[in-house]
Amino acid sequence: MKVKIQRQQSPVSEPYWETFDADVPGDMSIAGLIDHLNYRDDILDENGRKTTRIGWECSCLQGICGSCAMVINEVPALACETFVKDLKGDEITIRPLRKFPVIHDLLVDRSVIHENLKKMNIFIREYQPEDQGRASRKEREHSLQYTAAKCLKCGLCLEVCPNYTNGKNFFGAIFANDCYLVASRNRSKAENIREAYGEHFGRGCSKAFSCMDVCPMEIPTIASMARMNRK
Amino acid sequence: MKDAIIIGSGIAGMACAVKLAEEGVQVVLVSPFPSERSQSVMAAGGINAVLADCEPGDSVECHIKDTMDGGCGIAGKEAVAGLCENAEEIIRYLEKIGTVFSVDEDGHPARRAFGGQSFKRTCYCGSATGKQIVSALVMEVRRLEGAGMIRRRLWSCFHSALIKDGVCYGALLFDETTGKIEAEYADALVMAVGGQNALFGKTTGSTQCDGYAAGRLFRQGVDLKNLEFIQYHPTTLETAQKKMLVSEAVRGEGGRLFYLENGKRVYFMEEKYGPRGNLMTRDVVSREIEATGKDVFLDISFLGAREIGRRIPEVRDLCRKYRGIDITREPIPVSPSVHFFMGGIAVRLNHETNIENLFAVGECASIYHGANRLGGNSLLAALYGGRVAASVIAERPSPAGKRPDFTALTDAENEKLRNLRASKSPFPVMYIRDMAAETMNRELGIVRDEESLMRGLTDMDYYLSIAERIAYDSSVMMYANYSLTGILTLARATLTSALARRESRGSHFRKDYPAANESMAYGSVISFDNGKYRVWLDREKFYES
Asked: Is B480's Cβ below 8 Å from some Cβ in A?
């Protein structure tokens, strides 16, 4: 099988593609595949030329830290939970997330995510929930807050989003879900948060909801949006 | 004090940072990657606390006793008392900052039963307790970043501490973006770098936690403690890249361990320990699995798809996703794996090391767990330890006089890096790390003896002898290159500590000394004296005061 990877040696150098041969079992993850390519005496491209090892980032290797977000066969996904057997064709293409500056190969700088949340004061500080009435609603809201708080800040939703470009004005689904989490857990901040939400998400979202297709935590952004649109 | 540097931005580091900032201390929070990537997000089970509405009969004293018993009597009683007495306040704090706990009908944190504890006192957030706490703390750090009290320094790695005459003045940091070592000065330095997984290669933890910092600090004169106590989790599922935790909840829900002999299932735990045999403590189950010498399986299929979906959905999903195993129909192949390090940097009650103004918190510090840790106590210790260190730092006056100048040292270390970049040899750094991990797994396993530990030491001495002349590998982060000697040093210190403890206690089991020896019922400290590794028992209880 051929594995085509978009490389970039440094933040300021030009990207280029490099192809490798790999014979790996189907149940290997893409994270495993990159390790397999990297940990040989020498790393060789498909023509047997020696090249440099592939830069990438990992931590938990089980889908709960968001480190290894990348684009695999044009689908933004976590490398540790994407398996060779689930990919079609006999070539795999891997490239870094394009909406963030590349540091090295598949390693990108996603700090804009945190910076935008910081700029807009997205924090709970004091737990003061709104009165949610019926027990069934309470349970539903609690479950939604629990899921929203599982956001990995991996950036897959931003990569796939037709509205997000560089995070200068439209902040994407990550922002919407954190807004919901804060507004629902501190009612005294809800109004301010709604304003920021409208300006940096609500008015710019074209409702393609592709963010929900790629979210590893399966966060229902549409539900967060519905809550934020209620007065 | 006016300012502090914290290395590591997981739960312990963030808890410390927030408390320091609230007390008016300026904080630099250092980690190569954001907090969401830390190992803390992997903590699933929960956090122990005896709350006002605890089960009838439970008490803080009982939590203390359970923790002391779990640690086989060698954790400091005063430290453990502080941990347990402050647990309720910590839960209240986490609630206040908006942590999404699983709650009962009245909205109070729900509690679950955990191994080794006399009552249900483990608060939890579904099966993602660590992640939920990280999310809440990240928001608090964010708030204080906005207020100008915390500065995050990403893409930076710890290199070494700035120490002169037994006092710490900050740290040398390697900045991956500039490729240089820089000095960062502060009144206090707090290490919150997590456990030493990389010593063993594949474990249940994060690839980012490698033990380098402890190894490096050891060479700078910082004492380490109880390194021989390593907790194995008995049931993990192996994949090509790691060992994934199969939660203790599976056994809690009735899961049965067995191996096959002539096509027949042998339920070895039940045969040896009776009907509740599968629920024995982690160290006992791990040793029994190893003793079978066979492939062992954990069966929960009899519970049925519906109940499995209700009670342990995350285990079902994990097995299906990573190994294609349907646990509602087939047993799970399991094996023990390194899971938690009770040992680490030796700290006193105030979380300070033997070097003034140098602190350690979280899993990298050794203080609360003795010879074995109870589930649910590590998140508690991370939060409590972080807050204790912060209070001590905030209250202490800034050091008098001028800070020493470390420019010459910084230049010398940068020169060493330049030489490393130019080095040539047949040994790439990751190979040596893999070989060292192989040695550790083979010679410092669940069951050890003098012979195996001596073999381990011989191997490690060889790796150390070539570590300084590795081939520079430009395609891994610079950190991976310069961290090798520190990691191997810690591995050697761990083997030395295990060799010195000629008894079996808690997670440390010596085939040649299978019983506990009461004359050794103390923490063991290892010091670096002029190139020698010296192990001593803390009989005077220096590290318990």
From this structure: no
